[in-house]
Amino acid sequence: MISSVVGFDIGYSSCFIGIARGGGIEIIDNEYSKRDNPTYVGYGACADGRKMALSAKSQMTSNIKSTLHGFNPLIGREFDDPMIQTNLKAMFNDIEKQDDGAIGFRVDYEEKQIVLTPENVTSSLLVYLKTVAEAKLGFAVNDCVISVPLYFCDYQRRAMVFAAKTAGLNVLRLMNDSAAIALAYGIYKQDLPAEKEKARLVVFVDIGDNDTQVSAVGFNKGKLEVKKSLADPQLGGRHFGERICNFFKVEFMKKYNIDVDSRARAAMRLQTECEKLKKTMSANTTSIPLNIECFMNDIDVSGRMGREQFEELSHDLFERLRHLLQELLHNATFTIEDIDSVEIVGGSTRIPKCKTIIEEVLHKTCSTTLNADDSTARGCALQCAILSPAFKVRDFAINDVVQSGIKLVWYNPDGSVGGDMEVFNKGHVFPFSKMLTFYRKENLILEASYSNPIPHTQTVIGRFEVGPIKPAEDGSSTKVKVKVKVDIHSLFTVESAHTVTKIQVPVEEEKKEEKKDGKKAEKKEGDNMETEDGAENGVKEESNSNENGADLNAEKIEKNDSEEKMKEENGADEIISEEKKKPKMKTKTVQNPLEVTSSKKGFTSKELQAAWERENAMISTDKLIKDRLMAKNTVEEYVYDMRDKLYSQLEKFISESAKEVYLSELSKTENWLYDEGENCQKQVYIDKLAELKKVGDRIMTRYNESEGRQGALNNLGSCLVHVRKVLDLIANKDVKYDHLSEEDVKTLIEKDAEFQQVFNDFCNKAASQKLHEDVQITVAGINQKRKEFEDKCYPIVNKSKPKVEPPPVPAEEPKEGKEAEKETPMESAESTQAPADPAAADPAAADPTSMELD
Fold first, then answer.
1. For the structural domain made of 404-517+524-542+594-599, what CATH number should be given?
2. How far apart are CA 143 and CA 716, in angstroms?
3. DSSP states along 506-551
4. Cis ω on the peptide bond leading into residue 583 (within 30° of 0)?
5. pTM confidence score
6. Residue 383's pLDDT band (boundaries 50, 70, 90)?
7. What architecture is domain 6-236+319-397?
8. How many angstroms separate the CA atoms of 490 and 173, rounded?
């Protein structure tokens, strides 16, 4: 079974796809040979369907209301969120508040208006990214790892998992951007310190288009540990671009009396030009011009801005970056001297002032070891490879931390608060599990929420009810153990719960049960466990030892002495006492599982099913539209291709009158495609193409027959010549064919005469054939006759001669007496073989100086 190993980085402006191959991690390109996929999704009216990424971005100007961009920060948020209201001002779409308080985009789709949530739009984008990955890999993509900003809360993370499930993806992990970047950096390092040595501390600064994330990560051989991480969701490249846009809006109002915000298309054009200007200023210190033709009311506008002016306009944003870096060092477990290097990623780190501030605060030169754009996708693909059984990857542990503490509040039966505790403090490592102990007489109701401020209005994670719980037999509280967990996605959940009761059982029975059940302590792999001690709300370790063990042993010794004494007095072998008849009892702990009912906002199974059906309906519609457009393009391509060929290679194969009629038909079809045939059904285009091919195929047949006819005739003629030569050899009594019978020779003569006549008829018809008329003989017909001739004659021509048996060799008579004994196999071989070396036959020949002279 082939397993997919894919990582998705869904950014504010661009998305990247990383896949694991045998040679490492590769960032794949899309159908436009681009590695970055713009975060745009367009919904078209009039049967246009959906457009994704680059194609959606290219139609932004013509379909501005139904092309969505910048929806990633909106996922899992409410309409009334102050941060959302700030973001909505920069968007050009129709956005409305839903009944449940969520955000809704009103777009035109398939000649009607529909309302989509940010989760729906994100799932549409994930479907496209999944399709791109499948086209590159060659098989279906199911498992993946998706990056999210580290400040995403529980509700936003569940929204991302919801969008992925809607797109048909199984998320192995929602990975924080900072952890993904750190993994991409550290897994290839061969010189990391050993596990017990001091970690190499690297600070990663990621300034993206929408936010800034900084994290300090310690590296040891085989693991990384996030020491501290912070983020600013309102500090990114687009915020710098907004300062430039606002400046020119004011300037254009003064110079040209133009209100840019009154027209969405004009505001979008200015936004695009300001983004280009920002990138140009990063590489140039001189003043850069900005010119837009026919901007509004047929007015051409122009302006200028330099780097110093830009830095002055964005002074407060740069100070926010400085404050964020200083906050990273404040109350940290490390000092500035402990930092070994600073790695910068993200498109906005290319702004020179950002680099200057980073170096001033952290006292280190910025390093660009990692690719500024696709390092997050590489880290996600690596994490997916680590989690996938299909790849063997170097073991590398990732210890990430939660961004806010999580506390639990439990309630009394009357609804009042019974108590609270912080189960996970800020900066706690995850994934992690804890076992909590409660003493209750009724169902346990818990509410989880964030104990520190977060950039989200939804501070309550959810409510959980554990039950049914009843008092103990003596009326006391029942001991309840609850397992809470922050999983690999950084999602909090109450994983399981059970009651703990003690009962008295006979020792023998208890041993049998132990042997039968084979009790073992449960331990989940890859899951950290911790216990909290507390009198009422923590974990209380139960001792398995017997508190009265010493007294019981003393009592047993006295009992044995009494029995021995009775044996001596009564002379009995054994005394069966009342004490011995009673079975020995032992206290046994029994665990009864409890049901945990979770109550969290949104994303129920019913909502997931509805969203999945809606997405699949859109996918089916997209496929139909794609097939329809392909059929339309086929007709259009055929019209242009045939028109060109009629003036070149096909010109001789159609009469002038027929050519004029057919060209007129092609022109009518072309006009129809851009008028009435603009949005027809697929079958209409198929029928139109078939109608054109009725004439076009006949012309192409004449051309193809003319090109191949002479070659086919030459092949048939070569076969006839070959057989004629064989007949000549037979007539001259050639020994090569003297084994052929008279019947074989007669067959060759008849078939030669028969097919010679056929060949002559073909040649006469070919000579009289006019190019613009339908063919009289076809290449297929000529080849068929050649095959018939070969099947009849070649088996005779190639018939092999019968083998002649050689005469038998007479056996030699055996030799007798001493002659037979003298001749041995070795001697016989030596006598028939000449010496290979002259020196061996004559020793004197080997060295002439060794001869003796008189």
1. 2.60.34.10
2. 61
3. EHHHHHHHHHHHT------TT-EEEE---SSSS--PPP-S-TTHHH
4. no
5. 0.76
6. very high
7. 2-Layer Sandwich (3.30)
8. 9
